[in-house]
Design goal:
heterodimer, A: mainly alpha, MetI-like fold, 3 domains, two-stranded antiparallel sheet, 22 helices, about 0% strand, globular, B: alpha/beta, Rossmann fold, 6-stranded mixed β-sheet, about 40% helix
């Protein structure tokens, strides 16, 4: 006898043989016509919905037995469960009425156990799993996996919603939402916050223009965009008072006076409407355009994006004495990058890091393949050395060592130094990805380019590089997503990025110890952008013909 | 052959080795301006290697190549090489179009980057060339959307866009379906009527008989026989030629 779990399971299987044989002999040989895959899936869906509604009723205290109104609410719920039980029972067992009544009464007892709701839910689910198993056993499929998965999803969602809607105290987020988005400097110096608006408008305009050029149906943009706009308006404008435990006062969660007609709100409306207008205009113009026209437009958009980035950068921190003005306290000449903060800083770092990193990556990739030894060996050295160190270490180097050799040339503050390190670090990974792509470019293309009289540099720039980028889009986007998440590490340098602010929010006197809430939000923020990037990458793959449905591509 | 001009390609004793294997064992040929030479031979006979040495896609290890007065070897200056390559159009067996560019961009790339033509001029000429090869309506498609025959015709147009004096064809129809071969051959026959020097490596005997000024047989890296098509096909001199013709005709 081997001592392990499989033996135990095997033994259990062996011992229950009579029970299983009895169940088998009472099972229907052929499923009734309505007991199909669809009803099974429908039943599972209904079970999940029922479970979620039950969880919601549980946590909202609506399931009080003395509360008639609550019972009225719960009636359709029980009816649904009741129908499900009957359906499953009649789809499984042959006309052994004693057995059918026994099973039904078992379920009745389970549903009626007037104890802790969590327990009732568990029993409910056990019954569901057993009955569904009996139902699908006749199809001889591995439906147990899907049942277990549904049970797990239900269990997870129940706990998740219980936390989100019941336990969590979101005042910490509501109160600090402006801080978390734009950082401490702009929050306490509203007279400088106008410098952020160009960036916001540019981002909205570029985003809707990029979507318009995808040539998809309008609703694929309009629905998510409208949802996004609505959420944005609500989040910015939402006002809820909370009771401060610290100074025993009722405080507003909003640090600025705002109403629906507030200048801030007006600017947000304007940006949203601008997005709609740009999308509708470009969508109409490029709806049925040929591929090459769209490609030209996309290239222009890319140039506009880079230009827009620098424009936004220089509005925030104009070079020299350009744009100085007198504020209440001092003469200010822009906001130095060190004062930027919040998740907008993470975005800036990620965008700058990827764009510059891409340039570094192209240079290093070509360098590594070059025949010129004074170009080749330094490239290899840079790639291998930077890749072999953890990003954290490089950030510390940026903080401690880099000023010694950069500041004599250019007075770089910690955010600029972070951008340099991020682009070098990201660039090394991008270089290796691109090198793979360059090696995969067929020699025929290079020969064709040579045969046309193009120089090696021209061949690399116009033939090899575009081809390599085309085939490495998924890996490149992965590394951009990696870079986006790595921007959170800059908190080590004392830069007030979104993650750093989130981290210290539970140290505020009113919100001591609310760690779960803030980290959940931080995770959500990182997820949203990373998810959108991966969606975009898929869309780019389609538009490059890498996922074409018109057959494979020719080399 | 009164239409033929001066010698434009002059090779003597061209040798190429891949390690111990000698792909070319000394090829000497003089080709005159406007001449159409069809190169025949079994696989591995070195015929593709030979035409690839002419624009130095394949460096040769012995002998001399002189094209239009310029000696082709490792000492050829970059400017001369660039000039020579723009003088020599090359059409590949596998088309080798750039997959990330439209047909039009494929054709206009080299004239714009190498010759410094304006986009407007280059596109104008590209449209004319697409007319010539019979696919004017495909200008804005990507190569992956075209059939093999259409792709090869684009490749020919791309080579012609540099306005070359010499066209080299490396088995242009070998990767094509039978029904597409004709459309490519028709384009090549059209080209043969122009004042352009052509060296064509092919297995299409009909093409050789119809347009060639000279037919050449390669075998095991050596030039076995060269003659006018009539003489070559009807009255072969060498035993190897007879054997080759027996096998394919």
């Amino acid at each position: 006898m081997i001592e392990d779990t499989s033996t135990t399971v095997g033994e259990l299987y062996h011992r229950t043989r009579h029970l299983r044989r009895w169940i088998d002999s009472n099972l229907l040989e052929d499923a009734p016509k309505w007991a199909t895959r669809e009803t099974e899936v429908g039943g599972m869906l209904a079970a999940t919905i029922v479970g979620l509604v039950a969880a919601w009723m549980d946590i909202s205290g609506i399931l009080d037995p003395l509360n008639l109104w609550a019972i009225l609410h719960a009636l359709p719920l029980f009816l649904l469960a009741f129908i499900f039980y009957w359906m499953v029972t009649f789809s499984v067992f042959r006309g052994n009425w004693r057995l059918i009544l026994f099973i039904l009464s078992c379920w009745g007892i389970m549903g009626g156990i007037p104890v802790d709701f969590q327990f009732a839910t568990t029993v409910y689910w056990l019954g569901m799993v057993v009955s569904t198993y009996l139902m699908v056993i006749k199809y001889r499929t591995n439906s147990m996996i899907s049942i277990a998965a549904t049970a797990f999803i239900f269990w997870f969602l129940q706990a998740f919603f219980a936390f989100v809607f019941n336990e969590a105290e979101w005042d910490v987020i509501w109160t600090n939402r402006q801080l978390g988005t734009i950082g401490p400097y702009f929050t306490r110096t509203p007279e400088e916050s106008w410098r952020l608006w160009p960036a916001f408008f540019i981002a909205i305009a570029l985003g809707s223009a990029a979507y318009a050029l995808l040539q998809e149906e309008k609703r694929k943009f309009l629905i998510p965009y409208s949802v996004f706009s609505a959420i944005l308006i609500i989040v910015v404008n939402y006002q809820k008072n909370y009771y401060s435990n610290w100074n025993q006062e009722v405080l507003s969660n909003r640090t600025y006076a705002a109403d629906w007609g507030d200048p801030i709100m007006l600017k947000i409306y304007a940006a949203i409407i601008l997005g709609y207008i740009i999308f509708m205009f470009l969508h109409d113009k490029y709806k049925d355009a040929e591929d090459y026209i769209v490609n030209v437009a996309q290239r222009r958009l890319m140039i506009a994006a880079v230009a827009g980035f620098f424009f936004a950068y220089f509005t925030l921190d104009p070079p020299g004495d350009f744009g100085c003005h007198t504020s209440e306290y001092a003469i200010t000449c822009g906001v130095s990058p060190e004062e930027w903060g919040g998740f907008s800083l993470n975005l800036i770092l990620a965008v700058a890091g990827s764009v510059l990193g891409f340039g570094v990556g192209i240079l290093l990739a070509f360098g590594r393949q070059s025949d010129l030894s004074f170009f080749k060996w330094p490239s290899i050295a840079v790639i291998e050395i930077i890749r072999s160190g953890p990003l954290v270490a490089w950030l510390f180097i940026a903080f401690i060592l880099m000023p010694d050799f950069i500041n004599p040339v250019y007075e770089a503050d910690s955010v600029v130094r972070t951008i340099i390190i991020l682009s070098l670090f990201g660039g090394c990974y991008i270089a290796e990805i691109l090198r793979g792509g360059l090696q995969a470019v067929s020699s025929g293309q290079v020969e064709a380019s040579n045969a046309l009289g193009m120089s090696p540099t021209q061949t690399k720039l116009f033939v090899e590089l575009p081809s390599a980028i085309r085939t490495t889009v998924p890996a490149l986007v992965s590394s951009v997503i990696g870079l986006w998440k790595d921007t959170s590490l800059v908190y080590l340098l004392g830069v007030h990025d979104g993650f750093n602010l989130i981290r210290i929010m539970p140290e505020q006197r009113d919100f001591l110890g609310l760690h779960k809430e803030v980290y959940l939000v931080a995770g959500f923020m990182f997820f949203i952008f990373a998810y959108y990037l991966s969606r975009i990458s898929m869309r780019v793959e389609v538009s490059l013909g890498l996922r074409s449905d018109t057959g494979g591509e020719m080399t | 052959m009164s239409k033929l001009g001066n010698v434009i390609i002059d090779t003597s004793g061209v040798k190429v080795n891949f390690g111990d294997f000698w792909a070319l064992k000394g090829i000497s040929m003089k080709i005159r301006k406007g001449e159409i030479v069809v190169v025949l031979g079994p696989s591995g006979s070195g015929k593709s290697t030979f035409i690839r040495t002419l624009n130095r896609l394949q460096p040769h290890s012995g002998g001399t190549i002189e094209i239009d007065g310029i000696t082709v070897d490792e000492d050829t200056s970059v400017a001369d090489m660039k000039f020579l390559r723009s003088e020599i159009g090359f059409v590949f067996q596998q088309f080798n179009l750039f997959p990330h560019m439209t047909v039009l961009e494929n054709i206009t790339l080299a004239p714009m980057k190498v010759k410094g033509a304006t986009r407007q001029d280059a596109e104008h000429e590209a449209h004319e060339l697409l007319d010539l090869v019979g696919i004017p309506e495909q200008a804005y498609k990507y190569p992956s959307a075209l059939s093999g025959g259409q792709q090869q015709r684009v490749a020919i147009a791309r080579a012609l866009a540099m306005d070359p004096k010499i066209m080299l064809f490396d088995e242009p129809t070998s990767a094509l379906d039978p029904e597409m071969i004709k459309e490519v051959l028709d384009v090549m026959i059209d080209l043969a009527k122009r004042d352009i020097t052509m060296i064509v490596v092919t297995h299409e005997m009909g093409f050789a008989m119809a347009v060639a000024d000279r037919v050449v047989l390669f075998d095991e890296g050596e030039l076995v026989e060269q003659n006018t098509p009539a003489e070559f096909f009807d009255n072969p001199q060498h035993k190897r030629t007879k054997l080759f013709l027996e096998q394919i005709l």
